[in-house]
Amino acid sequence: MEVYLIRHTTPQVAKGIAYGQTDLDVIETFDQEAQQIRALLPEAHQEEMYCFASPLQRCAKLAQHLFKPSQITFEPKLKEANYGDWEMKPWNDIDHQALNRWMSDFAKERIPNGETYEEVFERAVQVWEHIHQLPHEKVALVTHFGIIQSLLAHLLHIPLDKTFRIHLDYGCVIQVSVNLPMLKVRFLK
Questions:
Q1: Structure confidence by residue, pLDDT tens digits, 127-150
Q2: I need a surface site. Which of 14, 90, 177, 181 has the fewest CB within 10 A?
Q3: pTM over cut 0.90
Q4: Following DSSP, what letter does each residue of the chain receive, concatenated?
């Protein structure tokens, strides 16, 4: 099985803003960014590839650009982390004590009225296990930073508290080839 982990294109949000499940649109360079992503997917297999995507519009638009409607399932578990009270606030305006507490143990510390990174990780792993029960040989997951980080942590046995060392640009594409017991991860963009 081949799985393509695809991060959404550049969202329409100012730098320094905390956002997670806020339903942001994409910026005007979407078409160019989406074409770059399309070029990285195996053209010969795009018709047979199945896509699971976050229902948030920054992912939904990309999935709809890359795949036919019959190839797409919108999966709420692929949404970004819920930043709760911090959604759409400048990071500099978030209570420093609460932010420091979260940063000291972001895997287990709950964002006020949001979720822990462990909960994001659990959602991501549930999707991963689900897609491996399906008959599809090629699958794309169009999703977010936190979900992709979680999947890489799961697949490569990286402790959750070390995953922020992984840099994932908007529009990144990671190919995961699964031929148990072998697993190969390749960063395409």
A1: 999 999 998 899 999 999 999 999
A2: 181
A3: yes
A4: -EEEEEE---BS--TTEE-SSS---B-TTHHHHHHHHHHHS-GGGTTT-EEEE-SSHHHHHHHHHHS-GGGEEE-GGGSPP--GGGTTEEGGGS-HHHHHHHHHTTTTPPPTTS--HHHHHHHHHHHHHHHTTSS-SEEEEEE-HHHHHHHHHHHHT--GGGGGGS---TT-EEEEEEETTEEEEEE--
Classify domain 2-187 at the CATH superfamily level.
Answer: Phosphoglycerate mutase-like (3.40.50.1240)
Q: Exposed, middle or buried, 6 (CB in 10 Å: 0-12/13-18/19+)?
A: buried
Residue of 187, 175, 151 whose CA lies nearest to 42:
175
Residue 130's pLDDT is 96
Q: For tokens 């699971």, what's the residue?
A: 52
